[in-house]
């Protein structure tokens, strides 16, 4: 009943608005049926990429290949792409049924076929009772489902979603998130998903493209992004709370530590995740002396906010008992395996030997 | 401030605007209604009550029938034309074409001119033989037309002037409405395969509907209200071919000094306008909003 997905490849994509360069040298690809997320802070160019891929805006440079075919000369309507817009973009003057079937009407799909497709997505998205209403008479979550239904009804092999869950409450968001993911798996459509919520990106995607100010910061699986951040931006963006970055002078490292390329020990930043840090002086390889600034109760763990003598703030996710007092001096330590090294000058991740 | 003083202040503050309203709106309206049941008096013969005689005269007034039919054609012609033109101009200046600022200005300019000035400009356009309109006809090898002097063309010529003057103002309303339509609605339609014409009729026009109703109401009111250009250009002629109801009222009342019949015609006009307003509000309430 559904079109299988197509592959998407974006090669050295660039976009400028007049003199303003919004995207520079963006590269990524996703195989048929995959789920790729564009992740990044507001204004980094995520929506712009979707508009370029869908053909709503013209590229300034680079290539977009859909199913291996360059679509530079293909108008938006012929790219066979479905898009869920950031604010749903439902037609306010049409009923839900008219909204969903609008594309079928434009493409003059025969009535019987149209009704079959309608019935299918209405059932899939649980919209049966709402079909005669206008969008304004629906809740945010219902509107969201209509927007999804409108895209799914046309059996598009590639679907772009621009922060589709940003207007929903936390519970609904989790619900629809898994709904989208299971649709992607069940129907085999390729999904490009935009979000600035890193936990959403990590939990849904096969592949994440992390964007920073119009450039790709890192491409990889969620696990790769979490385990091996390629630079300090990725380290500081992924994880709740994100990875701590510590100055070399605050860290007591094993004497054998040797950064790659012969870089000095003071030319690096140390990265360590809050959950890898411990406050009970074990025999872990690295340690930092710091003062407890504040405590934050998170349910499962305490977030202990610390400050080093040089003034760097960092966080320990403390799960043992015996929470330190505010203002007390403690030593935080972590094992060798949890250590990340970054070049202090350009932020790139570095290898090291111990 | 004690209560009595504040009541006094309130009374004084209300008295001024209310007395103006009564003196210049309500009293004349009421007086016109009364006058329509009396005949026209003179210094020798005072006017006396004649019942519905003036209204019976309405039915036998051939000139009135022509004027009403003119007004009807005028309204039916100018309202849709002004709306269509306004939408067209708004689309044009809202597009990404160069020099839209200049276009906006030139489309809006006629609106800022007083109708009398507009009428004078068009007198030159329509001047037989030497006017712009005639010269254009001549350039295509067609004979020039006496636009204002012929019973066939005078009314249409008046309608063209009205549309030219009004469309610019309506364009502003449409421009504002166009700019408030979220672009992602048009993008969504485009991805579904709709071309620009299709998008215009499926998405843009329905969303412009409240504006269209508002503009239509105003255009219709203006069609009955604005007759300055007729005073300046044709005086209702030739042979009443360009006379409209309001101009006829003016002519009867101040030209023939038949105040009683003028009052009767005024009541007729109020009834017509009230009837149209009622219909429009009914439509407005039913259709204007979907949010
Ligand atoms: N039409 C335009 N003209 C000029 N600059 C634009 C235009 N559209 C977008 N930009 C700029 O491009 C940059 C990227 O915009 P984009 O909408 O892609 O961001 P985003 O990553 O989707 O952000 P958000 O998460 O807030 O939606 C922004 O700095 C924005 O100001
Ligand atoms: Mg965006």
For the sheet with most strands of chain A, the description reads: 6 strands, mixed
The kinds of small molecule bound in this structure are:
adenosine-5'-triphosphate, magnesium ion
Q: Helical percent range of chain A?
A: 10-25%
Assembly category: heterodimer
Shape of chain A: elongated
Strand content of chain B: under 5%
Q: Specify the CATH homologous superfamily of chain B.
A: MetI-like
Largest sheet of chain B: none
- Average pLDDT over all residues of chain B: 86
Series of H and E elements of chain A: EEEHEEEHHHEHEHEEHHEEEEEEEEEEE
- Calculate the terminal CA-CA distance of chain A, rounded to whole Å: 56 Å
Spatial strand arrangement across the major sheet of chain A: 6-7-8-3-9-10
Return the structural class of chain A.
alpha+beta
Mean pLDDT of chain A: 89
Low-pLDDT runs of chain A: none
Structural summary, described in words:
The complex is a heterodimer of chains A (354) and B (291). Chain A has 354 residues and is of the alpha+beta class. Chain A starts with 7 loop residues before the first strand and ends with a strand. The model of chain A has no long low-confidence stretch (mean pLDDT 89). Chain B is an all-alpha fold. Chain B has a single domain, classed as MetI-like (MetI-like fold, Orthogonal Bundle), CATH 1.10.3720. Chain B is globular. Chains A and B meet through β6 and α2 of A and α8 and α9 of B. The complex binds adenosine-5'-triphosphate and magnesium ion.
């Amino acid at each position: 009943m559904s079109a299988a997905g197509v592959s998407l490849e974006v090669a050295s994509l660039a976009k400028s608005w007049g003199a303003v360069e919004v995207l520079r040298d963006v590269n990524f690809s996703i195989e048929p049926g995959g789920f790729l997320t564009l992740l990044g802070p507001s204004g980094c160019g995520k929506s712009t990429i979707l508009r370029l891929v869908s053909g709503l805006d013209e590229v300034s440079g680079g290539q977009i290949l859909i199913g291996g075919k360059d679509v530079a000369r293909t108008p938006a309507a012929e790219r066979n792409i479905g898009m869920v817009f950031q604010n749903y973009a439902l037609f306010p003057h049409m009923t839900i049924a008219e909204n969903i079937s609008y594309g079928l009407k434009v493409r003059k799909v025969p009535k019987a076929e149209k009704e079959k497709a309608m019935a299918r997505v209405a059932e899939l998205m649980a919209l049966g009772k709402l079909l005669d209403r206008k969008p304004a008479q629906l809740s945010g979550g219902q509107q969201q489902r209509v927007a999804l239904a409108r895209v799914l009804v046309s059996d598009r092999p590639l679907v772009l979603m621009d922060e589709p869950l940003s207007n929903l409450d936390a519970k609904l968001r989790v619900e629809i998130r898994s709904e989208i993911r299971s649709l992607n798996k069940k129907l085999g459509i390729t999904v490009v998903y935009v979000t600035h919520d890193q936990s959403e990106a990590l939990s849904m995607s096969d592949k994440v493209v992390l964007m920073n100010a119009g450039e790709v910061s890192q491409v990889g699986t969620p696990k790769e992004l979490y385990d091996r951040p390629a630079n300090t931006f990725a380290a500081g963006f992924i994880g709740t709370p994100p990875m701590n970055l510590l100055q070399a002078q605050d860290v007591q490292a094993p004497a054998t530590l040797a950064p790659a390329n012969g870089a000095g020990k003071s030319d690096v930043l140390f990265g360590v995740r809050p959950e890898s840090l411990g406050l009970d002086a074990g025999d872990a390889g690295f340690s930092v002396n710091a003062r407890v600034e504040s405590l934050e109760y998170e349910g499962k763990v305490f977030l202990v906010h610390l400050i080093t003598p040089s003034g760097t703030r960092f966080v320990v996710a403390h799960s043992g008992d015996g929470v330190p007092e505010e203002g007390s001096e403690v030593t935080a330590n972590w094992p060798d395996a949890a250590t990340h090294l970054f070049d202090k000058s350009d932020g790139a991740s570095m290898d090291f030997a111990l | 401030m004690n209560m009595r003083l504040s009541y006094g202040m309130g009374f004084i503050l209300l008295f001024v605007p209310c007395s103006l309203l009564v003196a210049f709106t309500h009293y004349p309206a009421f007086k016109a209604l009364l006058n329509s049941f009396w005949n026209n008096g003179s210094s020798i013969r005072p006017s006396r009550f004649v019942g519905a005689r003036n209204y019976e005269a309405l039915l036998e007034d051939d000139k009135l029938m022509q004027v009403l039919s003119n007004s009807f054609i005028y309204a039916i012609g100018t309202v849709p034309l002004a709306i269509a033109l306004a939408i067209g101009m708004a689309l044009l200046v809202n597009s990404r074409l160069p020099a839209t600022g200049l276009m906006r200005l030139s489309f809006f300019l006629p609106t800022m001119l007083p109708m009398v000035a507009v009428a004078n400009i068009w007198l030159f356009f329509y001047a037989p033989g030497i006017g712009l309109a005639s010269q254009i006809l001549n350039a295509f090898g067609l004979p020039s037309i006496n636009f204002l002097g012929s019973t066939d063309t005078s009314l249409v010529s008046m309608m063209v002037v009205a549309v030219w003057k009004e469309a610019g103002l309506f364009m502003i309303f449409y421009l504002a409405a166009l700019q408030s339509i979220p672009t992602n609605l048009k993008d969504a339609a485009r991805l579904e395969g709709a071309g620009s014409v299709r998008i215009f009729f499926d998405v843009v026009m329905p969303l412009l509907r409240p504006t269209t109703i508002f503009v239509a109401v105003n255009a219709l009111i203006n069609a009955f209200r604005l007759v300055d250009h007729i005073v300046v250009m044709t005086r209702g002629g030739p042979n009443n071919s360009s006379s409209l109801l309001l101009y006829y009222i003016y002519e009867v009342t101040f030209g023939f000094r038949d105040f009683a019949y003028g009052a009767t015609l005024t009541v007729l006009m109020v009834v017509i306008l009230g009837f149209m307003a009622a219909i429009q509000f009914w439509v407005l309430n039913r259709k204007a909003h979907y949010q």
